[in-house]
Amino acid sequence: MSQNSSKLSSDIQWKGYAIENTDDWSNFKVIDFKPKPAGDYDIDIKIAYCGVCGSDVHTITGGWGAPHLPLIPGHEITGVAARVGPKVTSIKVGDRVGVGAQICSCLKCDLCKGYNEQYCPDAVDTYNGVYPDSGTVSQGGYSTAIRAHEHFVFRIPDNIKFEEASPLFCAGTTVYSPLVRHGAGPGKRVGVVGVGGLGHLALQFAKALGCADVIAFSHSPSKNEDALKMGATRVINTGEQGFESSVKGKLDLIISTVDDFGALPLQEILSTLKIGGRYIMVGLPDDNLPKMKAMDLVAKGVLLGGSKIGSRKEIVEMLKLASEKNVRPWIQVLPMKDAGKAVKALNENKVKYREVLRQDIDGKQIN
Q1: What is the pLDDT of residues 153-177, one digit of tens each?
Q2: In angstroms, how far is the first alpha carbon of the chain from the final one?
Q3: How many Å apart are CA 356 and CA 163, to the nearest integer?
Q4: Nearest CA to 127 among 77, 196, 188, 191?
Q5: Distance CA 140, CA 128 (A)
Q6: Which residues form the Enoyl reductase (ER) domain (predicted)?
Q7: How far apart are CA 346 and CA 311, in angstroms?
C-alpha cells in the first residue's frame, strides 16, 4: 500500500522497542506488534521522534502496578500522517503531527463533551492501555508507527521542530492544563516546585501566560541559572531553613512537578499560598504523600489537588502559545536504540531537561 493511500489496513505489523520484564526494565528488545483494528476516524503515523517521560519509567519498572507485557512505552510522539481513515477531516496524509498520552476515549459522555476527555472512564492510554471494544493493548512511541483516533492527533506548528514538539505533547500539556484551569495569567503569582522535565516547561508557560511573578522552588542550586533563563523571576532553595519566609502567603497557585516526595517540605511550601490558593500536583511519585495535618489546609483555606494531562482544546491552545511565545523544551536527542540508556538516566535524575528518541528502525513497513 502506498503512503498516499487514505485507506487503513487492518492487517499490518509494525516494530518497536519493548521491555519484557519489569525486573529488567532498561533492557529493550525489538518486537513486532499489530495495532488495534482500523477505524473510520483513525490515523496511522510514521514516527520520527518520541520523548522519554517519567511515566515511562514508572510503568516499565512496575511502580504504578504490573503492566501488560511485552510493552512498548512512549507517549510524546511526533511524525508524519501516513494513512487516514475515510471519515478523518482534520488531518491529511503528509501532515506533521503529534500524539500525547491519550489515544482514545468514548467521545460521547458528558466529560468528553465538556472538554474533559482525559477523565473519560473509557479513556485509553497511548501505551499500556486496553481498547474496550477489541481488547487490544496499546503500544507506544518507541516504535515505527502508531494508530490513533483523529481527536487525539494534532498538527505541529510549522516553526516547531519534530524533536522539540515531542515533549510538548505530554510534559507541555500536563503543566499547561492546570496553569490555565487555575487562573495563571497577568497579575498572578505562580510557584513551580521542581525544575525538571515538567518544571522547566511550567516555568516557560507561566511566563508566556503573562504571570506577574514566577517562583521556582528547587533543592538543586545548580539549576538556578537555568530556571531564570526559563522564565523564573526568582529561585528559592527549598533546602535552606526558613526558605518560605520571603514569600509566605503571597502565591496564588503552585504547580508541583516533583517525582519524589521523600524530601519535599510540603507544609512549608503550602504556607506560601494566599488565602484560597491552590497547590496542584502533576508529578506522580510511586510513594505516598508526605505527612501533613488538616490544619495545613484549613488555616488558610488552601486547596490541595491534582491534574491529569489535558484536553484536546487545551493541547491546541498550548501548541499555539508555544509557537507564538517560543516555548521550547530543553532536550537531548538520542537514537531510539538507546532507550535503555535514556530511561536509566532519567531514573537517576541525570537529564537536563528532557530526552527525545530519534527513530532508527527501518520503517518501510509503514509505507
Answers
A1: 999 999 999 999 999 999 999 999 9
A2: 7
A3: 7
A4: 77
A5: 8
A6: 23-357
A7: 26
